[in-house]
Amino acid sequence: MSIGVLALQGAFRRHVEAFDALGQPAVEVRRPRELDDVDALAIPGGESGTMSMLLERGGLFEPIAERLAAGMPALGTCAGMILLGTEVLDGRTDQRCFGAIDITTRRNGYGRQIDSFDTALDIEGLDSPFDASFIRAPIVERVGDDVTVLARVDDRPVLCTSGPVMVAAFHPELPTPDGTSDLRIHRRFLEEVL
Question: Is 78 known to be catalytic?
C-alpha cells in the first residue's frame, strides 16, 4: 500500500512525515504519472483556490477526479476538505471541487489568520480529546445523508467521513501545543478508510 500526498502547496511534508512515522510509506505527488503509483491520496491544507488552479495547470485535476470516482481513498485537511467536497460557496469563479464527499464548505469560515485557534476536540472513537489547530479553517455549511460527522465545533462539523474519504477542517499533521505529534487521525484514516 502506498500513500500519495499532493505536494503542490501547503503543509504536505508534515503529512508525509506523519504517515512515515506510522510505518506507512508516503510519496509526494506533483505530476499525473506519480499518481499512478499510489493507492490513496492525502490533500493538505493551503489555499484552495490556488491549489485548484495548480491542479488544472499541472494536468492533475482530471486524473485525481477519475481515481476518486473509482473509489481511491483520500484524506483532506483544511483546503483538502474544500477540494474533496461537493461545493465551495465562496471560492474562485473557476475553482473546481472533486465531489468525493457530499459536503458544502465556506473558505476561511472561522475568520482570517488572526482568528486561528486551537481547541481540544472530542472525536467519536477516540478515548481522549485531540488538540486541533484551525488556521483560516473552512466551515461546513451542509452535509449529505451519507456523511458521518465524527467531531464538531460549536455544532459545526469539523471531521467527516463518507466511504473511503475522510476530511478535517483542522490540521491534524501539525504538532500539538506541547510540541509532540498526535497521529491518531492519520492512524484512523489508515485503519478505517483504507
Answer: yes
Do the beta carbons of residue 141 and residue 106 sit within 8 Å? yes
- Give me the residue spans of the domains in the chain: 3-193
Q: Which of 78, 97, 160, 186 is catalytic?
A: 78
160 is catalytic: no
Which of 15, 97, 160, 171 is catalytic? The answer is: 171
Q: Which fold has domain 3-193?
A: Rossmann fold (3.40.50)
Closest CA to 13 of 176, 175, 166: 175
- Model pTM? 0.94
120 — pLDDT class (breaks 50, 70, 90): very high
User: 124-140, pLDDT tens digit by residue?
Assistant: 999 999 999 988 889 99
Active site residue 17: no
